[in-house]
């Protein structure tokens, strides 16, 4: 079902009119405005920083990001004003139409961090700038480095049919339209407020892709796509999207358990003769969880308890501490150690908790290749990790796993040698949580 609105507030100018050659050019009036020039300089700096990080190289994606005025897609954005832990949380909605907001909004849009675009499921069109409190941010544009990595991996090319699942602010859809041409792009989201706003703002850039309000798990039945990009995290690859992948096509989606600590990127490709090839690649960062997906976290109280409590078991260990860069091990641990483990990445040394049962692990170095290991609760998390590390090394220390789609609908990750494997959870109803 189309999400095209009948009326909407206008975006800032028409900074993104497409030329006949398909590029985005600023209007002459905006070229004369200093804020627009500042935004252009900030955009170039953002792209340069992403290149310096090694996640973006020369090519069509870089060219599209260089000419994409994010202030047209996100003419309003939230900035958190409350301190960490302050209740209720407070945000200010900045508006490009307010000159006093523009300097800070430029920093928000082009700083490379997530951009907060929706509070408490509100409509995006026709909002008044100002303060909000309570509730939560319900949609955001993903960190630029993560978006760039995925767009590069997607390998967009002119003329491709693209399904963008999780419209959000429309950044991915805009890049796909710029690179591939908007005639073959479909962008879909479960939140009609997001699709309504995206349709208007993409049109302000000169793009008119098909904008669909619907479930990301369903996609567009009966159609085929050369590229499918899912901008939220799931527990398994949606079967309907696999079926909509055309020969020669590629699908990207982040996969994880209820724990947010050790995600994977699922890369699914369909060969020219229709065969599926897929892998799970351990990654450091992922999208937000999809709508309705269970998530577990360490509360501030639990973190403080782990930091200060004496623990039930203390030992000195000479066993090698698994490195943060051993992401293939941590990915396997997320699935094979019974689930429920969450890493506290804010801690100076290794801290892992199991909120479900209250178990925890605290490790710190106490000398050359010696560690103090303190554990508490019914689970001995240190013993579990070390036992799995032995299995992981015996399997060749993989950082990626083959992803097999079984006849009964199961999805199984397996190391190249076959010695380490696990099944992804069975399917359950889940809608998308837009993010990009």
UniProtKB/TrEMBL annotation:
UniProt record, GO biological process: methylation
Location of the protein in the cell: Cytoplasm
Pfam family name, one: PCMT
Alphabetically ordered keywords of this record: Cytoplasm, Methyltransferase, S-adenosyl-L-methionine, Transferase
Database matches in CDD domains: AdoMet_MTases
GO CC list: cytoplasm
GO molecular function terms noted in the UniProt entry: protein-L-isoaspartate (D-aspartate) O-methyltransferase activity
EC number: 2.1.1.77
Family under the similarity heading: Belongs to the methyltransferase superfamily. L-isoaspartyl/D-aspartyl protein methyltransferase family.
Biased composition (Low complexity): 1-16
Protein name (Swiss-Prot/TrEMBL): Protein-L-isoaspartate O-methyltransferase
Main localization (coarse): cytoplasm
Top EC class for this record: transferase
Region (Disordered): 1-23
InterPro entries assigned: PCMT, SAM-dependent_MTases_sf
